[in-house]
Structures are given as C-alpha cells and as structure tokens.
Amino acid sequence: MELVSEPFRYIAESVRRDLSKELSIPENDLKIEIPPRYELGDIAIPLHAVSKKLGSSPEHIYDTIKDKLLRNKYIESVSLSSGYLDIWINTQELSKITFHAIEELKDLYGVVRTNNPKRYVVEYVSANPVHPLHIGSGRNAALGIAISSMLKLRGHEVITRFYINDMGRQVAIMVLGFMLLGMPDPPEGVKEDHWIGYIYASTNTIIEIIQLKKKLEKLKEEDPEEYREKLKILDELIADASRLSSKFPSVFDTLVQKLSKIEDPEAEISKLMISYEKASDPQVVKAFRKAVDLCIAGFKKTLETLGAHFDYWDYESDLAWEGVVEQVIQAARSSRYFSYYKGAPALVFDEILKERGIREELRLPKTLEIPPLILMRSDETTLYTVRDIGYSVKKFSETGADYVINIIASEQTLPQAQLRLALYALGFKREASNLIHYSYEMVMLPGQRMSGRRGRYVTLDEVIDMTINKSSEILSGRGVKASEDIAKVIAVSAIKYALASVSPSKQIVFRVEEVLNLERNSAPYIMYTYARASSILNKAESIPPLNEVDFKAGAEGRRRQLLIEISRAPTELTKAIDELKTEDIASMLNRISDLFNSWYQEDQVIRDPDPGARAYKLHLVRGVRQVLAKGLMALGIKPLERI
To answer: Can you give the pTM of this predicted structure?
Structure first.
C-alpha cells in the first residue's frame, strides 16, 4: 500500500480529480470545504460558481455526475444540499490508508515535514528589565514557545532571541534609584527581578510625587479645577508609596531622602541615559549592567520554569557601543526619505506609502496612519525604534535568517510598522518584507489593575505558584496521588495552553479555575485524554497487525468521527503551523479530546469480544494518542503517560 502522510487530503484530492474530469473543468475551479457538522458530509464542494461556468444548474450537474462519482472506491455516498455537493468518504478505505500511515510513520505522523526548510529567528518575551515578568509577558512566552515548537516540528531551523532593552527612560529611572542605594544585592529570600522591580517602582513613585507636588503649588492659584484633579492623582501616588514603603521601610526612606535632594530628577535621568548610551562613565555602565543583569537572572528562572529557552541574549546597549546605531543614523541622513519632523531629524514615509501594493507587501494595517520616524531626541539620544532598525538587520545578517518573527504586543503596532518602512527606506527591502510582527492582545486578571511603574502587578511567578497549588488541590480532590513535579508540569502546561489557545487578536481574562478544568478545553483535559489513551494501549500490551483489523468496524458513530479527525489532523496541523495559528491547534486538540472521551464512555475497547473490531479500536486509539501528542508538542507542552 502507498504510504500517505495526509490520508484525508489524499482522498479529497482524488475525489476532486475525478469530478474535474467528469465536468471537464480545471481542478482549481473546484473548492473543497469541510462542512461545519458531521451530518453534512465529510467533504463539501460548492457548485454555485461551477454552475455559472457550465451554464447548468447545480441540480442538473449533480444528476449528471452522481452515479459516476459513486464508482470512486473512496466515496461512500453523495447528496446535494443548498448548492453544495456533500460527500461521505468510504471509511474502510480511509481506515486502511490512515492506520497504515500511522503504522509506518509512527511518531512522525501528525505534521508533514517541509521539503523547503527555512531559517527563522523568533524574538520573544524581551520584557523591559525593570520589574518581574507579569501575566502579559507570560502570554508572550507561551506564544514564543509554541511558535518555535511548531516551526521545528515542520522541519524549519529556529533560532530564538531575547532582546534586553537596557536603554531608555524606564531603565534609567531604575538605575538612578539603584545607584542612590549603593547598588545593593537583593535581600536574602528576595528574587532578583522582584528586587529590581521594587527599586524601580519606589524610585518612580517618589519622583512622581515630588514632581506633582511642585506642579500643585503653581496650579492652586492658576487653575483650581485642574488642581483638584491632580490632588486625586496625588492621593493615589501616596497610597502606592505607603504600600511600597511597608515592604522595605528603610530602603524606601533612603530613596525618599536622597531623591528629595535632587533638584531636577528629569535632568538626572536624562544624564544617565546619555552617559550609558555613549559609555562615557564606567561607574554608570557598571550600575546599569549590574541592575539589568540582576533582573535578567530573575527572568531566566521564571522562563526556565515555563520551558522557554533562548539561543541569544542581546543587549540593546551593545548595538550602540558597537556603532550599529550610528551607522543607522548616518544611513538615514543619506536617505532620500530623510527630513525634519517637528524640528527633529526623521525618516518620512509619505512617498513609500504611495507605492502600489506596499502595504500588502510589508503587512501594514490598511487604516493605520504612519507618521515619520523621529531618529533622535533633542539630547541626541536615539529612540527605541531606531535602535531596533540595527537590531533587525543584525538578526537577519548574523544568522542568515529567511524570516524574523517579532512577538510583540499589539500596542507596538505603529513602531513595528515604522520599523518595516524604515528598513525598506534604507534599502533592506528583503528584510522589511520578511519581518513579521506577531501581535497579541492583553491578558487581564480578574479584579486587578496593574501598573509596573507603581509596583501594582501580579508577577508571573505568583501566577505559576498559585496554579501549581490549585493543581495539587484539584488532583488530590479527585483521589489522584500526584507528585509535586507532576502537579507543576500540569500547572505550567495549563498556563501555556490557556495563553496560546486563544486567538492573539483577542484579550484574555486569566482564571486559574478555568485553565485547570479537567472536564473541557484545557491542557490538563487534553493531557488527561492522552494519558487515558496511553493507558488503554498499555493494558492491551500490543496492537494487532493490520491484517487482523476488521475495517468495517469504523463505519458509523463516534468511531467514524474520530477516524475523520485523525485522518484530517496532519493537514490541519500543518496548515496551522504555516499560518502560525496556535489557536487552531488547540481547537483541534479539544475537539478530538471531546470525541474520544464521549466514545470511550460508551464503547468497550480491550474487552470487545470481536477480535477484528477490537483490533480496529486499538488502532483508532493509537491514532488519537499520536495526534494529541503531536498537537501538544506543537504548543510546547510535553504529554504525560500517566496522571
């Protein structure tokens, strides 16, 4: 028998070829669709466009081809409904092809390996090193892990990078506080990134209070209404300061005393930014690097728990010190698109945006207004997006990448669009076309209003710990004696699945009870299904050879539906990978799990007295197990044999 890696697609294409010959029209004129419900058929082919082309009604076309189609050994039955040719596949033939593929391909079944491997750079997380990772960073990590895993399964080479944003105002604020405190190491028992986050939030909050109090002195006489509004903000800041002070009173008091003596905090922050970008003061460089590295050390511990691994950790400052940023500035000044915008040097994109098809080529949102990209501030420090131009070129050139995927929140849509246009303007047209902004929306925790600069956030570490505790509690309540390691694996898998299973264009409200639900759409639910399938196969001890299978045993009910699903899985998984749709993989896994669990409840497998039917069911279980394993692996989740 011919080895087929995509059984369902193989049969669907066979049907389309036959129909194409019968109607004497090109195969591409026949669109294959998957009906939304099983009872509508396995394949649906719309005849409306074909009808117009042939000048004949769908009913007449159907009457003409019905008997001829039924001669195809892969077709069980056909019907016409609302202009659609509905086709039911011969399950005996589909079973033979599918079970043979799983038998021969073994662990390779489920995703079709590409014949044209590419090299991808996936940059993800890249959170500012000024506070611990939060749940939003968790979604970024989950998506990065999934996309990297998906591309590797498809046969592509993947290089992962973390961009350490150690320049800019936020980091300078944190370093100002860090230096005023004498560059202290974290107290015993305090995680590095939590310590840095405390210093940043405290420093920023104190500065905001100082600045607002000065402003209020002027407003009291000049604008009483705005004065009252600002007083409300001051009350919030004082409440935040009180909360921060209660954690490390002496540290907070020291910052208050020392920051109060600085006449112009903004000037001090700007001075630090300039000094670090130009590497002009060794003590400042040492302070920045020590503080940032402390935060990154904390990040690495959290990311290790999630299973996120990076090939490169790239410092933004290195780009400046190596002269890469200066080269970008010089190239921009020499560009025909260089001009001044609001008095600042800038790249102006109006001319490029008039080019036909440019928005499609660079994947620029159709309605997004894209202003010029300002290259430098008045103090001659560069902006984040300008430094990112140099970094983007580096990501392509250093590794010979075909594509670079930046996993960055949707709030960065404009800077990412400016980045692609800037690359295009500076002559890096291939890089501009092959730079992909994988955008995602926010994650919220019920009842939480977060602010990193005020120290109001729930860290990703806390979410992980909370989920692990809940996982242990749920397993214990079900009478499952799970080790701490198993509870941790389930909890972390639940978090990753929950954050990658929803379309990135949708916001997520993260609820621990839902992500650990053992009854429906969750990683534990799918992992439990996988473990159940593994248990059945282990109890059976061996799977009978294909020549002992009664292929008629899958003709109806949920057995048939499961067969259709596992035969379609390689095509569906491969398509989801190529389109970078993690949510489609999750949807497939959940659908198959639902079907399997419903079937398992009502149908004997190992105890079936009919040897042929028993053999059929065991091959079906193996197919389910293999597809679930491949789908979980695509999302970066390790299946468990036992739970």
So the answer is: 0.94
